[in-house]
Amino acid sequence: MSVPFDHPTLAERELAYIHDARPHLFEEVRGVVDEPAGVSALLRDFDLDPARCVMINDSISENLAVQTLHPGLRVVQPDPIDLLWREALR
After folding, report:
1. Could you give the CA distance from residue 54 to residue 76 in angstroms, rounded to a whole number?
2. pLDDT of residue 27
3. pLDDT surpassing 90 at residue 87
4. Which of 2, 3, 29, 80 has a 20 to 30 Å separation from 23 between CA atoms?
């Protein structure tokens, strides 16, 4: 007769801790053909305030179109992100 073991092992507890400790960066990943429409849908679907968001995109024409649709949304090209990545933290 086997008795069910419902207490997690140390390894299972450590794995759960690691899972809970890592930052939750992505709620959803979407692929779109029309970037401005995709951003609008994302903001609408998650009821996001564009003024509290940042979009990273390398297309200048898409960035201009998105900024026209959502003036409060901050749009950054990847180059400054790359520069920040190389800066030493103080």
Report:
1. 7
2. 73
3. no
4. 80
Q: Higher model confidence: residue 47 or residue 5?
A: 47
- At 44, the amino acid letter reads R
First and final CA of the chain: distance in angstroms?
A: 60
- Angle in degrees, 0-180, between the axes of helices 35-45 and 60-69, rounded to the nearest 10: 40
User: In this structure, are residues 55 and 66 in contact, taking their beta carbons and an 8 Å threshold?
Assistant: yes
List 80's β-bridge partners, or say none.
none
Q: What's the one-letter identity of residue 55?
A: M
Longest dimension (CA), the chain: 69
User: Which one is predicted more confidently, 68 or 29?
Assistant: 68
Q: Report the SS3 class of residue 89.
A: coil
**Phi then psi for 71, rounded to 5 degrees?**
-60, -30
Name the helix (H) or strand (E) containing 38: helix 35-45
How many angstroms separate the CA atoms of 45 and 86, rounded? 35
> SS3 of 4, please?
coil
